[in-house]
Amino acid sequence: MKKPVLRKLPCILTPEELQARGQSLASYRMEIDRLTAEAKSLAAEYKDQLKGLGQESKRLAKVVKDRQETREVRCEAVLDFKDGRFYVARLDTGEVLEGRPLTDGERQMALMPTLPASEPAPAPEGEMAVELVPTPGSLPADPPPVKKGKAGVKGKKGRG
What element of type H or E holds 87? Predict the structure, then answer.
């Protein structure tokens, strides 16, 4: 009794089959190269995302551990001419952050007339923005009035 059986055996390719296999091989190689490049690009993108998430996670872990974080807080810089002191205090808690004697230049400010208020310039990067505010009663009284009299260049009438 004979029964047909299929087996995988080596077979010599015809020129047409050989060309078709070569084309398939080239297509597979190109697809492998494309996917490899795409995988590298995505890996770099995910690596950057993971790095950012890791940094923020570390920052938040420190905030939770320390139970505090650094924020911009409105402060007030005070030139206290009465006591001869300069200090910076937080407006939210009133805590004095810095205190020192007035410099000579700051003492001179007490002698200058009060200028109209204007918007303070922003502080440079990394520095605290402060607004100089004299304490009530620390500025000298208004300067004495200027006597009105004859002013100008002396000369003879009729010339000119």
Answer: strand 85-90
